[in-house]
Design goal:
Layout lengths: L2 E9 L2 H17 L3 E6 L13 E7 L2 H9 L1 H13 E9 L5
Helix pairs in contact: 1-3
Length: 98
């Protein structure tokens, strides 16, 4: 069952965030992940999000998403995102509704 890493945030340090993007991209594809969406001005329809930048990554399953997130390669760059942004991230799995 597919799993999604979803992050929503405000970028407070664009230069540091750009460094993060350069380092994170290769880790996603190396882990079998796929960038589904990257929106810098998401439309809010309910509630108050931390920011309008949204990233959605798709992985084969929750185990693959967790393995990517905890991998040494991603852990080497994730600190840049955490320092450059304020917001949240979750791993959410697809549900079979049929």
């Amino acid at each position: 069952m597919a799993a999604y890493f979803i992050a929503q945030y405000v970028v407070n340090d664009p230069e540091l965030y750009a460094e993060y993007q350069q380092g994170a991209g290769p880790t996603i594809s190396a882990a079998g992940g796929e960038l589904v969406a990257l929106d810098v001005a998401a439309e809010v329809v309910e509630g108050t999000p931390p920011g309008l930048q949204t990233a959605i990554l798709k992985f084969e399953d929750v185990a693959a998403a967790r393995a990517w997130y905890s991998s040494p390669d991603y852990q080497a760059v994730v600190g840049k995102r955490l320092e450059a942004t304020s917001g949240f991230a979750v791993i959410s799995q697809s549900m079979n509704l049929g």
